[in-house]
Amino acid sequence: MDDVTPPRNASEKWPRRSLRSRTQASSAGAEDASERLRAVLASVSDCYFTLDRAYRITDLNEAAKDWVGPDPDRVLGACLWDLCHPEAECSRAIKEGMQARQSVRREVMSGLRPGHFLSLHVCPSTDGLSVFFTDVTERHAAKTALDELAGRVLSLQDEERQRIAEELHDSTAQHLAALVLHLMRLRQFVLPEGHTVLDEAEGSAEEAVRELRAFTYLLHPPGLEHGGFAGTVRAFATGFARRTGLDTSVSMPDAADSLPFDIQRSLLRVVQEALTNTYRHAAASRVTINLRVGANALKLRVLDDGCGLSRGVRKAAEGGALLGVGVTGMRARMLRFGGSLRLLSDTRGTLVVAILPFGFKPAGHGPQANPGPRNVERERAGTIS
Known about the structure:
It is a single chain. By secondary structure, the protein is of the alpha+beta class. The chain contains nine helices and ten strands.
């Protein structure tokens, strides 16, 4: 049997008193640290509240009390679902953090104040969750306005390019074709010694006609309304090859036709601009267009086997300042949907890589669809191989 007799002298009592004193001091220190933390949280401008594992509100700072409006004391101890619907966008983010026990950062719509947008940060804690949020409604409205403006600018650009293409085709190209015919008729009036010069003039005029037809074709934005995205890109590449003499191949799944229309149009413009740059600058013989649709993102690649870009041009493109070859416009179209655009180039050719994530919601738009299984091709690191 264990010895449970009490200590018989002061030396046996001392360890117990010392342990009790250390425990009390530790509790007092923890309480003091907790009070200091509450004071700091109360002074921050962000709204802050804590939840236990049953989603009851256990604490909130002054900023959060101001956010909930009149009678903030009713909030303390209340279930979060009594204040906002459990399926609201902000509620789903909070439940995700609680159930997965992981940090969540997201811009969401408020469940307590409809029409307001919040920058939400959910952090798991021992007792439940700590939730920080800031009202970013004004910033969201500014992003929406900027996105609408960017979309309008890009639409105006398409309209202007179409107008220029039509005028070149209907007027300038016809004048050049007439010039070729006149040069042919002129041959009968020129002495044999002048036929060489006449041949050169005819050749230059015919080359100008071919180039003009190629440029007007590249300038004119093809439509998506009838052929779908994959069919439109294939038809556009076939016409490009016929007019320029470049060997052009296309690889993309028909599932690309299920992408949202705005994304299809932006990707088509990237293809159009990349082919224009290849024709104008690359001195290439072959160009490949490849699209891979994965579970989380899609990747569009346009690769040519040309001479590549000079170091100065590549540096300007990486900085987003390459207005002359359309990189800025391509990048702007991808940024609208949370994507990115990279330009990789060396003496063996140039690769344009456009990546778009699924699930990104541009300002003023609904969530994007997830059209297909994951099959994203590995991107080459920095060189053409």
